[in-house]
Design brief:
By secondary structure, this protein is mainly α. The chain has helices spanning 3-20, 26-57, 73-77, 81-102, 105-130, 139-155, 169-183. The radius of gyration is 27 Å and the shape is elongated.
C-alpha cells in the first residue's frame, strides 16, 4: 500500500467523513427545528397581536374585535380543543427550550456548524495537495490542522466522538477509493521501503 493511501485511509479520511456527518446528530436536528419553529411562532404571535395594537394606537377608531370573541383565557379554553392543543404545544416548547439551555446546545450546534464548514475547507485543501506529485510533503501539515480542529471541538462537546465516528468504514473506504483512483496517477512512486 502506498504511504499516501495509508495516511488517507487511517489518519485523514475517517475524520473528514465524520465531519461531513456531524449534522446527523439528533440534538442538532432538535435545535435546528426549535430555531426555525421559534421564528414561525414569533411571526404568528405578531399576527395575533397586530390587530389589538393597531386598535389601541388608533384610539379605538377603526375595526374592533367582533362581539362574541372570548375575552379571557378560561373562556377561550372552555370547549375549544385548539386552545388546549396550544397549551400542550407551549409546554412541549418550554421543555425543549429547557433541554437546549441545560445542554448548551446553542453554542455546541454553532460550533458544530463551524466545524463542518472547516472540515469542508480542509477537504478542499486536501484535493489540491493530492493533485501534486509529492503530496506527502504537505499532508502532515494538513493532518495537524484537522486534528487541531477535532481536538478543539471535542473539548467544546460539539464533536460527539473521541475520534472518528464508529461504523463508517464502508463510507471511508468508498471515499478513499474515489480519491486514490482520481489522484494516484499524479503521485511519484513510493520508495520500496515505504510500501506495505
Amino acid at each position: 500500500m502506498h504511504p499516501i493511501e495509508r495516511k488517507l485511509r487511517v489518519e485523514i479520511c475517517p475524520y473528514l467523513i465524520t465531519g461531513k456527518r456531524l449534522n446527523k446528530w439528533t440534538p442538532y436536528r432538535v435545535y435546528i427545528a426549535y430555531s426555525y419553529l421559534g421564528e414561525v411562532f414569533v411571526l404568528l404571535a405578531g399576527f395575533g397581536i397586530a390587530n389589538p395594537v393597531m386598535v389601541f394606537l388608533s384610539g379605538g377608531q377603526g375595526t374592533s374585535a367582533p362581539v362574541g370573541n372570548p375575552s379571557t383565557v378560561a373562556e377561550f379554553l372552555s370547549g375549544n380543543w385548539l386552545g388546549w392543543m396550544a397549551i400542550v404545544l407551549l409546554v412541549i416548547w418550554g421543555l425543549i427550550k429547557f433541554y437546549i439551555r441545560s445542554e448548551d446546545l446553542e453554542k455546541r450546534c454553532s460550533l458544530l456548524r463551524s466545524c463542518k464548514q472547516q472540515c469542508m475547507q480542509i477537504e478542499y485543501q486536501l484535493l489540491q495537495v493530492l493533485a501534486t506529485e509529492t503530496p506527502m510533503e504537505k499532508l502532515p501539515t494538513l493532518q495537524a490542522k484537522l486534528y487541531e480542529l477535532v481536538d478543539r471541538n471535542i473539548a467544546e462537546r460539539s464533536w460527539q466522538f473521541s475520534g472518528p465516528e464508529p461504523g463508517i468504514e464502508n463510507e471511508v473506504d468508498a471515499y478513499c477509493n474515489q480519491l486514490i483512483s482520481k489522484y494516484s496517477s499524479f503521485w511519484l512512486p513510493a520508495p520500496s521501503v515505504d510500501r506495505d
